[in-house]
Structures are given as C-alpha cells and as structure tokens.
UniProtKB/TrEMBL annotation, chain A:
This is RNA polymerase subunit sigma-24. SUPFAM superfamilies: Sigma2 domain of RNA polymerase sigma factors, Sigma3 and sigma4 domains of RNA polymerase sigma factors, TPR-like. Residues 183-282 form the DUF6596 domain. GO terms for molecular function: DNA binding; sigma factor activity. Residues 114-165 form the RNA polymerase sigma factor 70 region 4 type domain. Coiled coil: none annotated. It comes from Pseudomonas alkylphenolica. One of its GO terms (biological process) is DNA-templated transcription initiation. Residues 15-81 form the RNA polymerase sigma-70 region domain. NCBIfam families: sigma70-ECF.
Automatic annotation (TrEMBL), chain B:
InterPro entries: Dimeric_a/b-barrel (IPR011008), YCII (IPR005545). Residues 1-112 form the YCII-related domain. It comes from the Bacteria. It holds the Pfam family YCII. Belongs to the YciI family. This is Dehydrogenase.
C-alpha cells in the first residue's frame, strides 16, 4: 500500500524528469501542441488518484503517455457530438499507432520537438520563446522577465507560432540528412541566442539571466546526447568555456572586466576541462564549423595562465581559419587585436586601420576603442583621445560608456 | 495538403538578370513536379499593366485598372501543389527558377467547409 505522500512525491518527480518527453510524444501522437499540453496535464491529474488506488505503474512514462492520449481522444469524442468535423480527426488519431513508445522513439520525439520549435518558417522572434516554453518548460512570465518583454507579447508570439505549425502543417519530424545542416544551424542559433541573452549582463533581471545561460547549456547537452554533430559539440564547448569566466567577468558594480584583467583564479576549471575536451573532439572530426573554431579560440585563452602567456600565435592562426571559412569585418577586428599581441601594437593598428579605411565597422564602437587602445600603447595620445571620443559617441550602453570614460581620464 | 506558391518579382528584373530563368527552364521544372505527382496547376502571368481589379460594394461592381496593391514586386505566376507538409512544399518552392530573381510566398490552401 502506498501512502498519498508517496504518490504525490512520485508524480512530482516523474513530472520533473519526464514531462518534456511525455509532451513531445503526445504532440506526435495527437498532432497538436495545445491538445497535447492539455492531455498531459490531465494525465498527471488522473495519476494522483489512480496510482493511489492501483499502485505506481512499472513504467510511469508509458502510463502517462497512454492515459494522456486516451483522455484527449475521449475529450474530442465528447465534443464531436456537437461538431461533426471532429469525427474524421478522431478516426485519424485512433489509427495512429501507439506501440512505438519505446525509449528510442521517445528520444526522437524530443529531437522532433526541438526542430519544430526552431523551424525557420516560424518568425525569428517566436523561435526562442517557443523553444523555452515547450522544450525547457519555462513559463511565459519567466521568458518575458528574461527578455524584458510584456508577458502578453510573449504569449501572443507563442500562440501565433503554434497556429502556424498547425495551419501550414509544419511537420513534426527530424529533418532528412539533406536538410540537416541548414536546419541544425537554425537550432544552434536559437540555443546560442538564449545563451547570449543570459550571458550579456546588459539588462534585465540578473538572476533570471543566469538561468537562461544554464538553460542554453542544458539544451546543448540534450542535443549533444541526441545528435552528436561536430557543431553541436562545438557550440556546447563554446558555451561552457564562456560560462567558465562568469565569476571573473564583472566587478561589484556590474561593470565588465576585460579578459586581460580578469582574475583567472576565479575561472571554473571543471567547465574549462569539459569545454576543451569537447573542442578536441569536434576538431578531430575535420567537419567542424564556425562554433567549433570560436570554441577553440576560447579554449586557448582558457588554458593560458595569464594574458602574456597566451599562445597568440595559435589564436591568430585560428582567426585565419575563421576568416577563410566565415569572413566578416568583426572577425577581422578580433584577429587584429590578437595580431597586436603577437607582433606588437603597430601591426595591430595597421590591421584595424585597414578595416576602417575600407569603410567597414565605422559605426562599431569596439573598432574605435581598439584603435584608441593601440594608439595609446604607441604613445600617440591625441589620436587615442579622438578615437575614444568617437567610440563614446557610438554606444549608449552604461557599462561600456563608463569603461571608455575611465580610459579617457587615464590618458 | 494543398499549397499555393505565389511567385513575386519586380517585373523589370524578371527577364533581364543574368540569373533570370528562360521559359524552357520554367517548363522543364513544371514537368518535373508534374512527374512527381505533386502538381495541380501552374501558370505564368502577363505583366501587371494587364490587370483589372474587381470589387462589389452594395451590389454594385466597380472596376479599377491595375493590381490590387501597388507594390515593388508583382505577382508573376503561381504553382498550386499537393504536398505532404510544409517542408515538402518549401522544397518545391525552392526549385522554382524565378525564386532566383524574385521571391516565392507559400500559402496553405484552406478547404471550404461545406
């Protein structure tokens, strides 16, 4: 005989561990997000009473999936008495096999859910909230708080996205091998957006923001388990290596501390070890992409005892790889900064000025800050001052403005 | 489900770009989709100056010369296809030769409730 407390504890722990898997499977079996969500909650509700009476089932997950599906079809049947158009839907749902609720299929359902929530046919600003809501089980209010948005706005984006999935018949499936690279890009982009939203301390409720980074890393781990593509490993590594610096990257006022000036004893060694190992694994495949190379750069920084002892030769080389495959002026700017460390400020300054002379990055404050810093190192103080002033005029962000003003006053 | 793929393009560019499709290529693509059993109908349209817009208000018909909306890109043609789901419809849309110079809007067809 089980006590009511034991039943409640069991239901709660199954919800914690399995609710996303159960939801993902019910969406496949019922073909509708809202119907599946309703069915799942009903199944958990029924479980409290049934498990008390009949005991906790051997496979609670399968029990909940099957109860949820039964409840949903039953509900539709009751409604069908008033609405004849439902009858066909019910037949179709009943015909759908349930015998494939084995573990492998369940994991595939989670992957299907991720790919559907990040489908490029959905509005870009809906993919992130939909993923956080359906895959991570964050509430609309939590998502709104993290993104400094009105909960009604977030709710509306989610409703619209679900309506498009239903009405345009976006399939609930893992893309074919031919489509995979493009579709995976979209999933990785959503995860990295969630991570960066949490990681950049520019605005919002700080506590909620750390949760977002953790959530992104959890998503990365899930994807690593389900689909260990080199770029999945690369993105997870990049997030872990960036997160390893969390405790060292801002001071007590919340102002950013540059990599060079961070107290490296505060870096999280466990995250660095895991991230570095994943980078190695990704690079060995020879099929890595842009996230893996960025992670490799982060790993070189992470393994150096100080800025001076960093292997700048290696970092410049990795930026060259990045530039060859994914050229962009911002990457070029970062390479110039690394070049300055390897070959001296004069070489770095030439590279920065070459970018600006082409008319690129002229509105990007970091390009002018970099130029200012290199001028300062070369003793060209007037030019440094002018460049810092230009940079100041280009950013409205509080912490960055304070940083530039501090540099100006030190000149 | 049926999907309508609406091909939009600036008419001035449709036939003048290096990447502009020739009619023969469009016909070949039509035939390849027809061969896969997914094709319901497809046509190219004459230029937008030939359009007439019809409205009926309070029982009276009014006619206007020109398209419904003046836009930078005009409706140049359409494909009506029967696809398994949006992914398959998007794959068909991706292959439409005019997608290289214009854009293709993919819209699911609503079945009328009778």
């Amino acid at each position: 005989m089980v006590t009511p407390q034991q039943v409640r504890a069991a239901v709660e722990s199954v919800y914690q561990a399995e609710s996303r898997r159960i939801l993902a499977t019910l969406i496949r079996l019922l073909g509708d997000f809202d119907l599946a969500e309703e069915a799942m909650h009903e199944a958990f509700f029924v479980a409290v009473e049934r498990w008390q009476r009949d005991g906790i089932p051997a496979n609670p997950r399968a029990w909940l999936v099957s109860t949820g599906r039964f409840k949903a079809i039953d509900g539709l049947r009751r409604r069908a008495r008033f609405d004849r158009s439902q009858a066909q839907l019910i037949l179709a749902l009943e015909a759908r096999q349930e015998d494939d609720v084995n573990d492998e299929e369940l994991e595939d359902d989670r992957l299907r859910l991720i790919f559907t929530c990040c489908h490029p046919a959905l509005a870009a600003d809906a993919q992130v909230p939909l993923t956080l809501r359906e895959v991570c089980d964050l509430t609309t209010e939590e998502i709104a708080r993290a993104f400094l948005q009105n909960p009604a706005t977030i709710a509306q984006r989610i409703v619209r996205a679900k309506a498009k999935i239903r009405d345009a018949q976006i399939p609930y499936q893992v893309p074919s091998l031919a489509e995979l690279p493009e579709r995976l890009d979209s999933v990785l982009r959503v995860i990295y957006l969630v991570f960066n939203e949490g990681y950049s301390a520019s605005s919002g409720d700080q506590l909620m923001r750390n949760d977002l980074s953790d959530e992104a890393i959890r998503l990365g781990r899930l994807l690593q388990q389900l689909l260990p593509d080199p770029e999945v490993l690369g993105l997870l590594a990049l997030m872990l290596l960036q997160a390893s610096r969390q405790a060292a990257r801002s001071d007590e006022h919340g102002d950013l501390i540059l990599l060079d000036e961070q107290d490296r004893s505060l870096w999280n060694r466990a995250l660095i070890a895991e991230g570095s190992q994943l980078v190695q694994q990704a690079l060995r495949t020879q099929q890595f992409g842009v996230y893996s190379v960025q992670a490799a750069i982060a790993a070189v920084h992470a393994e150096a005892a100080s800025a001076e002892q960093t292997d700048w030769e290696e970092i410049v080389g990795l930026y060259d790889v990045l530039l060859r495959g994914w050229p962009s002026p911002v990457v070029e700017l970062n390479r110039a900064a690394a070049l300055a460390r390897r070959d001296g400020p004069q070489a770095g300054l030439l590279a920065v000025e070459a970018i600006l002379a082409r008319g690129q990055l002229q509105d990007y404050h970091l390009a002018h800050s970099a130029r200012a810093e290199l001028c300062r190192q070369l003793g060209r103080l007037d030019q440094a001052r002018d460049a810092y002033q230009t940079a100041l005029g280009l950013t409205a962000q509080g912490a960055e403005r304070r940083f530039i003003e501090r540099r100006l006053s030190e000149l | 489900m049926k999907y309508l793929c609406l091909v939009y393009c600036e008419e001035g560019l449709l036939h003048s770009q290096p990447d502009s499709p020739a009619d023969a290529e469009c016909m070949a693509y039509f035939e390849s989709i027809a061969g896969s059993g997914r094709m319901l109908a497809a046509e190219a349209l004459k230029p937008v100056q030939t359009a007439t817009t019809v409205r009926v208000r309070g029982g009276h018909m009014s006619l206007t010369d020109g398209p419904f909306a003046e836009t930078k890109e005009q409706l140049a043609g359409f494909y009506l296809v029967d696809a398994r789901d949006l992914n398959e419809a998007l794959n068909i849309a991706k292959g439409i030769p005019a997608a290289r110079v214009g854009s293709v809007e993919v819209r699911p067809i609503r079945e009328l409730q009778t």
